Amino acid sequence: xxxxxxxxxxxxxxxxxxxxxxxxxxxxxxxxxxxxxxxxxxxxxxxxxxxxxxxxxxxxxxxxxxxxxxxxxxxxxxxxxxxxxxxxxxxxxxxxxxxxxxxxxxxxxxxxxxxxxxxxxxxxxxxxxxxxxxxxxxxxxxxxxxxxxxxxxxxxxxxxxxxxxxxxxxxxxxxxxxxxxxxxxxxxxxxxxxxxxxxxxxxxxxxxxxxxxxxxxxxxxxxxxxxxxxxxxxxxxxxxxxxxxxxxxxxxxxxxxxxxxxxxxxxxxxxxxxxxxxxxxxxxxxxxxxxxxxxxxxxxxxxxxxxxxxxxxxxxxxxxxxxxxxxxxxxxxxxxxxxxxxxxxxxxxxxxxxxxxxxxxxxxxxxxxxxxxxxxxxxxxxxxxxxxxxxxxxxxxxxxxxxxxxxxxxxxxxxxxxxxxxxxxxxxxxxxxxxxxxxxxxxxxxxxxxxxxxxxxxxxxxxxxxxxxxxxxxxxxxxxxxxxxxxxxxxxxxxxxxxxxxxxxxxxxxxxxxxxxxxxxxxxxxxxxxxxxxxxxxxxxxxxxxxxxxxxxxxxxxxxxxxxxxxxxxxxxxxxxxxxxxxxxxxx
Length: 588
What we know:
With 588 residues, the protein is an all-alpha fold. The chain is built from 19 helices and six strands. It has a two-stranded antiparallel sheet with strand order 1-2. Helix 2 packs parallel to helix 7 and helix 6 packs antiparallel against helix 18 (510-539). The two termini are 15 Å apart.
């Protein structure tokens, strides 16, 4: 059962207090000055346009760089296909790894608002640096020189690489403070203790992901075309401009935002539970959980967190909440390295229960990484022309975005009502069911990509183009099915993850759990890089061309896609097994 349905039942039982009639929020939110906030003039949907506008512009800036980055590396910095793909996936992975830094700072010290503000500035500086590296001639290698035998493409100098990658990884650092905080900060604008606002919060995540894809749509179409046809300086400069607009949009809503106070370091709380459990290794956990230690006040001892109901799993950790004889004699219950509350113990249990579900997202993210790497390289050796107009290969990702924009309302307006009648669940599908459907669609996506590549290679062989580094006369629009399937998979998997990691996470760890969700994307990119490296190493032994040579007509990119399809199928089976035994969070 999802936490939203859980809270509805608890309200009916009188366990949770509904504050719908209260003038002030009941979830502990405050204004920018730390004062309690009125519901009537803060938060709710009135604050969301600023947050959604920020996300839309920031995603436009990000995808304006990421979507066509592999083309810039191969065409302007003169890298080979494999090094370029590896650099893109490594950078993309880093962009989803740095949110751990931003999440810890937000949950522990600064709160989500100030973390977003600070890291946005770093992001903007990185965008400007990247724009300069693509504009100033001294910061770029010379163009390729055509000779009678072949084109000679000078490599970038170490200094040119240094400037380019400095800007690129400054963006990766900047996005680390935005990604884990923006969605949670938006959801914070809805009072958990108000039933009407809680319902509205359920819609926020769909609009949030919709905003992401509006930005991505502009980037994958207009920005990519500008980069390929009007120049990379302008193509990087426009995303930098929109990043500036994102910062202005975010600050514009400051006076009506609702803020949650940081609850202290979640990492320290986790360590305290482990240390306290080990210190009481020889104690026996009582059968009656009421004998375990909990804060006696109405609220949890952890700032910004509700109390959590005790569960019977991972009983070893319950030892941290046993009140020992020495503590009973002294009456000192203040040292969390010796004695933790039930809520603090349950926080760690929740993270452990979420781990298997989290881990299965890594392979899906490796599939998603192909959209900006191997799908683009596949498209570059297909016919990209419509009459006299040339379509940038990276622009095909537009169909992924269009698929998402279509599937979001289809899911919300059609699939959910049908599923609700079948399953009897308020949301139609649970978050776990939704993610499972997305994983299945990812198998179909990679299978479609493999079939298209089989057809492309067959045509190259029939036309004697195998040993020629030229495009095969097969329309790039044959790639549409794989992009469309990937977009559908996103709607089910990624939005399902947003809901799952926000609803199921401990209240004071929401930024951290959002970062863990994003970490699957990071690890998926690293997994993609690892698979590329292993495949290249294994298939080029003995001087062989390998599956993915610079001339893809001589390779077998289809084998690589089939490999990912098989890994995705295995991942789906593991996910189904883990999801069957998952138990949802319960707040009290």
